């Protein structure tokens, strides 16, 4: 039976970052996952390190938008009818959290995490030899109507409050940055302080390699085997049982599978998302991620090609993929950018773990001595992985934390 100081369950970007920060402090750490490092939800993201993100996602306020979603005509959202009764309480809470005052409050509470996101990534990239994957070219959001652009007033006011620079552009100004875009949009906003990755999986693996260089070990095992053992906790792995006094649950959408049997239920839902890779036609190219806000998709240059990501799908985590959003958005995407043939034959699907208030849970697990949580990062797992690792490692070590962790406590749901 192996013994270690801490077991980290989940080898996505959040779990790897937590494990690396703990190892940097000299702890003995075992990182446990049933699959290879970084190949679940962490793999399929947009690659954006969203340090300039201000407002969280919001429940649609427009009746026309709701009707498009309800009638399954929207490209930015889809749902499985059989899943709606299960997710309805979460959707109701999400709607309540989408009031203007609540949205602004969430933006301020999350700001310390986002403000440190890029610097924390850069520090780990330097250590891990992964800076070659980093692009500090910002990102751009496009708006198809003047009305959509005019609705950004509150976001711009918060950007000024937070000291975040942005550039409001017309179509010509946007095309000066991205010449391959077609002028099918009216306005754009360029956020220069955002960064992006050309290969998120490679970066997660590089962080894991650095973790190993510091003496950490990665083991294959089923997190659901977690159980009390003496005064601590035990997880069964292919290499045998591992004991530790402390466990970090960083399992993303699979966290309930471990926490519920231990008596802890948190109101987390999943939003599924998809991506495909394409080649650009001719000399068409992108220098940064571009979001078509009105239709809810993103295109971004990756090592594998131009990655096109969809909006949200409300469906059971393990339901069969239904990538119908591509059918709805492809005409819009091809009108915006000259996408060519598929670069591979894969359609990736993953599940984003989301709390209705758009804040992660970082800290102790209520009622479970020795268990810590780093879950519910929603659309921002890649962005917030390293900064979450730093905050949680500081909490576990009893150090002064770089920000107040109270807004991220699980007890807020009690």
Jot down its keywords.
414 residues; alpha/beta; FAD/NAD(P)-binding domain; D-Amino Acid Oxidase, Chain A, domain 2; 2 domains; nine-stranded mixed sheet; six-stranded mixed sheet; 11 helices; 24 strands; 32% helix
Q: How many DSSP helices?
A: 11
Structurally, how many domains make up the residues? 2
| C-alpha termini separation | 37 Å
CATH-derived architecture of the largest domain: 2-Layer Sandwich
Instruction: Report the mean per-residue pLDDT as an integer.
Output: 96
Number of strands: 24
Structural class, from helix and strand content?
A: alpha/beta
Do you know the CATH topology of the largest domain? D-Amino Acid Oxidase, Chain A, domain 2
CATH superfamily of the largest domain: D-Amino Acid Oxidase, subunit A, domain 2
Task: Annotate the secondary structure layout.
Layout (H helix, E strand, L loop, with lengths): L1 E2 L2 E4 L3 H12 L4 E5 L14 E2 L13 H8 L6 E3 L4 H14 L2 H29 L5 E2 L3 E5 L2 H5 L2 H10 L4 E4 H7 L9 E5 L3 E3 L2 H14 L3 E4 L6 E3 L2 E6 L2 E5 L1 E4 L5 H5 L8 E13 L9 E3 L4 E6 L2 E5 L2 E3 L10 H12 L2 E4 L5 E8 L5 E4 L6 E5 L5 H17 L17
Parallel strand pairs: 1-14, 2-3, 2-15, 3-11, 5-20, 7-17, 15-24
Antiparallel strand pairs: 4-10, 6-10, 7-9, 8-9, 12-13, 13-14, 16-19, 16-21, 16-22, 17-18, 18-19, 23-24
Helix pairs in contact: 1-8, 1-11, 4-8, 4-11
């Amino acid at each position: 039976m192996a013994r270690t100081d801490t077991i980290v369950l989940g080898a996505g970007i959040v779990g790897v970052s937590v494990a690396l920060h703990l190892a940097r402090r000299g702890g003995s750490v075992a990182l446990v996952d049933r699959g290879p490092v970084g190949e679940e939800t962490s793999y399929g993201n947009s690659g954006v390190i969203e340090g300039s993100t201000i407002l969280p996602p919001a429940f649609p306020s427009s009746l026309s938008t709701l009707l498009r979603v309800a009638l399954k005509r929207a490209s930015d959202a889809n749902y499985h009818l059989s899943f709606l009764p299960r997710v309805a309480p979460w959707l109701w809470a999400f709607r309540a959290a989408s009031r203007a005052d609540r949205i602004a409050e969430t933006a301020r509470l999350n700001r310390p995490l986002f403000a440190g996101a890029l610097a924390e990534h850069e520090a780990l990239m330097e250590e891990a030899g992964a800076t070659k994957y980093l692009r500090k070219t910002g990102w751009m959001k496009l708006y198809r109507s003047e009305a959509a652009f005019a609705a950004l007033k509150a976001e711009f006011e918060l950007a000024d409050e937070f000291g975040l620079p942005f550039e409001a552009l017309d179509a010509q100004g946007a095309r000066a940055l991205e010449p391959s875009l077609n002028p099918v949009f009216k306005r754009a906003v360029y956020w220069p302080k955002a960064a992006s990755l050309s290969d998120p999986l490679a970066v997660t693996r590089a962080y894991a390699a650095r973790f190993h260089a510091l003496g950490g070990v990665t083991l294959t095992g089923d997190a659901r085997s977690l159980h009390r053992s003496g005064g601590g906790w035990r997880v069964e792995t292919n290499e045998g049982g591992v004991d530790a006094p402390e466990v970090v649950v960083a399992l993303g959408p699979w966290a309930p599978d471990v926490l519920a049997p231990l008596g802890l239920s948190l109101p987390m839902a999943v939003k599924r998302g998809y991506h495909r890779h394409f080649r650009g036609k001719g000399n068409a190219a992108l220098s940064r991620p571009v979001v078509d806000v009105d239709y809810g998709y993103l295109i971004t240059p990756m090592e594998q090609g131009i990655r096109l990501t969809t909006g949200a799908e409300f469906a059971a985590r393990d339901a069969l993929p239904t990538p119908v959003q591509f059918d709805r958005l492809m005409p819009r995407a091809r009108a915006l950018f000259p996408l060519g043939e598929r670069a591979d034959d894969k359609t990736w699907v993953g599940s984003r773990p989301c709390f209705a208030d758009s804040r992660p849970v970082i800290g102790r697990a209520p009622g479970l001595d020795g268990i810590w949580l780093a879950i519910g990062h929603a659309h921002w797992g890649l962005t917030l992985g390293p900064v979450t690792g730093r905050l949680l490692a500081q909490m576990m070590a009893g150090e002064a934390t770089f920000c107040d962790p109270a807004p991220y406590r699980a007890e807020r749901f009690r």
